[in-house]
Amino acid sequence: MNLKKILFSLIAVLFSASALYAGDYASYYTGLPLNLPEPQAPAIPDTRVNIADFGAVGDGISMNTEAFAAAVKALEKLGGGHIDVPAGMWLTGPIVLKDRMDLHVGRNAIVLFSPDKTDFLLDGKVQPCIGASKRSDISITGDGILDGNGQYWRAVKRSKVSEVEWKDFRRMGGTVTPDEKLWYPFNLNQYPNIAGDYKNQEKMRTHMIRFTECERVLIKGVTVQNSPKFHLIPTRCRNVIVDGVTVRCPWNAQNGDGIDFSCCQDVLVVNCTVDVGDDGICLKAGDGEAAAKACPPIARVLICDNTVFHAHGGFVVGSEFSAGVEDVVVCRNVFSGTDTGLRFKSGPGRGGKTSRIYIYDIIASAIRESAVVFETSYADVPVGRSAKTANTAEWLPEFTDIHISRMTCREARTGIFARGTKEMIHDITLEDCVFSQCADKAMDVPDMSMIKMNRVRF
Q1: What is the pLDDT of residues 155-183, one digit of tens each?
Q2: Mapping DSSP to helix (H, G, I), strand (E, B) and coil, where does residue 351 land?
Q3: Do 111 and 160 share a structural domain?
Q4: Does residue 184 sit in the same domain as residue 287?
Q5: Fewest C-beta in 10 Å: which of 123, 150, 313, 397?
Q6: CA of 238: how far to CAs of 29, 41, 53, 324, 394, in Å?
Q7: Is 130 part of a structural domain of the chain?
Q8: Which pLDDT does position 379 carry in this prediction?
Q9: How many helices (H) and strands (E) does the chain have?
Q10: How many Å apart are CA 209 and CA 248, to the nearest integer?
Q11: CA–CA distance, 16 with 80 (Å, rounded to integer)
């Protein structure tokens, strides 16, 4: 064999040796109350390309959508690898990842998604800022920032902003409702609309990172901020790891959910910091019969060592979970300044059944409403519309087999709040918990047989 063939063989061997992004996560899976499998990390080839080599310019002005697409195409031909985004501000439209591919956002790098909504339209549909569908072995890593420019997408409630902020939004142009209670980013001064009126454009808001039906996913280290809608929403994915990610947006951002998993299985969330305008870390599983038939339950989830600052709920189940939620462990998390601590919410037509949920070693402080809440008449209320609870006796929520222990909460309006019947809320246990400085009352529960308590102090 000549020298050229030997070198080619060595390169092929090196190329095939995939770099696993697994941290040492085995320690998280020892001593759990459930036997959960450790998720498989993605396998990414060592090949690396730099976004600047494809004509990208990090000046915050030049559009780099084509450069990102070219880098993805080049790596796809090579069998996958890493797209390195160096220091700079990289303005772009949507990024679509393929198999065995990592988007690595380096220190002092910001990937800034375009404020022009038309950049995200494809065949009449709005694409997520970063997306992947039916792919395997994908990741987003690094110390940099992903910014969704959400202020150009989100409606604003005047009651949730100061007069100074309200004037700032008005300077952008936009549309104010006749009662002057809402501002919509429709008819902006600088950017075109993507719908015929502000109500339909509101329905077209996109997500920041949306992976659908993907296998072996890792998001590690990056800051994900200011999404048009939800920040991170894996849907029907398996083997998902979210590690050391910071998720942030203004406290009043409409539908500004942090980390939402829908119908995913084998999930690990560790070392994350969340400070958002809606739910913090949330588990969903579709609503109604169609979702239950099409989606698997969300199952085998471990959420550990995270901190949630502002959010509607620190850890949340619902509102839609008709396919079911099972085998979940939530431990060693801190909720500081959230509206609620542990939030279980759903309503008729959206509910399902929970089973084997274990929550322990939770620290909660300065909770605006209830430390623990069970809500069975929840109705999703899109901004600008009235609340309507589904008039149906089907797909009622059943919150059961939920075990909470060693939760310490100081300062909440109510310690434990529940609304629903014994058929919808039952077999809930609390042990070795402390709820102090409850401003209104310790408990607001219609039937105390719903919740079994042992060594709980108020």
Answers
A1: 999 999 999 999 999 999 999 999 999 99
A2: coil
A3: no
A4: no
A5: 123
A6: 17, 10, 33, 16, 29
A7: yes
A8: 83
A9: 5, 36
A10: 13
A11: 10
**pTM surpassing 0.85?**
yes
Locus of tokens 């037509």: 349
pLDDT attached to residue 20:
43
Amino acid at 381: V
CA torsion 137-138-143-148 (nearest 10°) is -160
User: 4 pLDDT exceeds 60?
Assistant: no
Tokens (6 digits) for 117: 């909504």
Residues 87 and 179 in one domain: no
Q: By the 8 A CB rule, do 338 and 312 touch?
A: yes
Containing domain of residue 359, as a range? 43-146+207-457
How many residues can be counted in the chain?
458
C-alpha dist (Å) from residue 34 to 299, 301, 358, 369, 429: 12, 10, 8, 30, 16
430/436 Cα distance (integer angstroms): 15
Among residues 433, 286, 303, which one has the least CA distance to residue 34? Answer: 303
SS3 303: strand
Sign of dihedral through CA atoms 433, 434, 439, 445? positive
> pLDDT tens digits for 188-232?
999 999 999 999 999 999 999 999 999 999 999 999 999 999 999
* Separation of alpha carbons 81 and 132, rounded Å: 15
Residue type, 19: A
Phi-psi region of 236 (alpha: psi -120 to 50; beta: other; left: phi over 0): left
SS3 category, 266:
strand
* Dist. CA 274–CA 280, nearest whole Å: 6
Beta bridge partners of 108: none
